[in-house]
Amino acid sequence: MAHDDTSSQRDNSSVTLQDIAAHAGVSRSTVSLVLRESPLVAEHTRDKVRQSIKALGYVYNRGAAALRSSRTSTLGVVVYDIANPFFGAMVAGIDAALNREGYVSFLANSEDSCERQRRFLERMREHRVDGILLCPAEATDPGLIDTLADWRMPCIQVLRHVGHPPFDYAGTDFHLGVCQAMNHLVALGHERIAFLGGHAEHSATRERWHGYRESLSRHGLTYQRLLRATVTRRDGFDLIQRLMSETPPPSAVVCHNDLVAFGAILGLKRLGLEPGVDCAVIGTDDVEEAELGDPALTSVATHPYAIGEEAARLALRRIANPDGAREQVVLSPRLRVRQSCGAQPRQAAFPETPTPDRQQYTPA
Amino acid sequence: MAHDDTSSQRDNSSVTLQDIAAHAGVSRSTVSLVLRESPLVAEHTRDKVRQSIKALGYVYNRGAAALRSSRTSTLGVVVYDIANPFFGAMVAGIDAALNREGYVSFLANSEDSCERQRRFLERMREHRVDGILLCPAEATDPGLIDTLADWRMPCIQVLRHVGHPPFDYAGTDFHLGVCQAMNHLVALGHERIAFLGGHAEHSATRERWHGYRESLSRHGLTYQRLLRATVTRRDGFDLIQRLMSETPPPSAVVCHNDLVAFGAILGLKRLGLEPGVDCAVIGTDDVEEAELGDPALTSVATHPYAIGEEAARLALRRIANPDGAREQVVLSPRLRVRQSCGAQPRQAAFPETPTPDRQQYTPA
DNA sequence: ATTGTTTTTTGGATTGATCCAAATCTAGAA
DNA sequence: TTCTAGATTTGGATCAATCCAAAAAACAAT
């Protein structure tokens, strides 16, 4: 039996400030001040109170504190696909940043459903969270952001944004990312480059498409194939097969995310073609699995962990200063060249970099 | 400007039960009963109150309610690696099950650090969560479970368990999973089968190892190689190379999880060997990426989404009935045969099953 | 000893709901 | 009409903290 009663408190944990106060021979208010590390309390008193707190096994009741002070030290986080490794990393970043400040977060998975998203946001309001990190579901009504503002609820949009500026936002420069991929392919001599995936419903897609079109015209390329679609592996698999049967077929494709790229690679193999040789493939996100494929996937690293950290920090800033100027934190992505774009020889080697996406990014 | 004042409430959201009561011409208590859908209230009164609630734009204050009722409709969830796709899926399952019951969850990532785990659990106690879903960090002191019991905090262990029965637990039958993999390999004619990865610090590893050893003796195999290690891709990569240089080398390996298996496949390629032909590889978890590899990874599916759902449901049951008999929900895993074990021809095809791990499991 | 500052401490009000025992209002029976 | 059982409704106490203005204590200067 592994535990013994180190602290000698009674059975139930209903020890309150009042009890501590009585035990230490001071008032409720003084104990409260000690708990909040107020400098008003004399050293000597502080010690006495601390001892009583320990002796009685007191547990701070944040609910009660929140009721009076209307600060819950709590945040709501909404993502649209927590099962996607990208969001796993992002949530880890959020968690790390919040943890440092004593905050905790509610997490919900909207599955890109506006209805689920709305329900969760309402629940968060009832829980009086101090703020919300929102990766808006596709087709989110731009008015939602105004509604949150009406609620006086600090809201940081992440990765995608809807509504009109100014709003708080943390994300990555998708436009730049696509340009990096395009530049690389052009430098390798490609002239027929297609873009796979995305709806037009949100900023993250528009930015990518804009980068694609702009790159085409900057390099004077006339071949243009932009295939709209959802962004699953299945889509990549189907789209690439359709595309390769056209005349002429593309010599390279840039994909909305790594999932689409994985699907595209599989599709090429199905056709008996060699990815990176018969058609170059570049993904977006650089999820950990990218380096494991065969061929390893060239991808635009979007640093989810860092985005999570930045978003959380921005939220804390906004909570501390609700009426401050809105901020947009846009990180710069970075192209990670591997085999699937044909630039490197195919050889199975374990990648050198330990955890590439934690530190290597540049705020724009 | 997308929003207009549909509901005509004033600027600030400090509408309380008192205000509703005044507006509807009833008492605070009655309004409270209406909000909680009590059958005590007359139909006619209920309608009147509902109208006032809508008219004034009232927002329920769960914090205040929790203070009096000591029910927060809130759960704490601790995982040790949220960036792992397995946990992404599991969290999605938890979220879905809780959402149906109006619960929300705090999520924290212990990163397998007992210190972080402890801090989070204490914070959850301060927030008065109704219960906790805990995937214990490695080397968690078994006394922790007793401590939580002292706190009278319902705690469901997930995936791993520490301490002595009885305790609440939701997970998968790792022992059976390894046996399935071993049986399959033996049926294919393998006689030299190694096991890669795992520490002895927790149940999930012990169960796997037990399955490995038991299978060996049941099939009368004398070759035995069980390599302890952490469970990253890097480990799989290193271990397989060490193993293949022995005389004789194994003809097949079963891996602690899919990450180790991915590493092993990469390691074999590095040696110029063909996974599935020169050495069969089987993973555990069947993460979505398993089917994408080349060769596609044969893996023991452990149904993370389903485990998450079951764990959450068990938690809700325990909260409703704190002194009921402890339960252990153990799902049966299922071997998904692909190319890496050499049983199927290598051919790139998009897998048929849409989302294999949501429904196909059997409670043991 | 008196006064004026500065440092600590304090009790009462407040936050917004729920709980509970008692009050009030039905409708049917005597 | 009166009584009573059952259905509704209610006000005061309570949950456990924070806020705030004012009191008390400590200290320095006159």
UniProtKB/TrEMBL annotation, chains A, B:
Keywords: DNA-binding, Repressor, Transcription, Transcription regulation. It comes from the Bacteria. Residues 15-69 form the HTH lacI-type domain. This is Transcriptional regulator, LacI family. SUPFAM superfamilies: lambda repressor-like DNA-binding domains, Periplasmic binding protein-like I. Residues 340-364 are annotated as: Disordered. It comes from Aidingimonas halophila. It holds the Pfam family Peripla_BP_1. GO terms for molecular function: DNA-binding transcription factor activity; transcription cis-regulatory region binding.
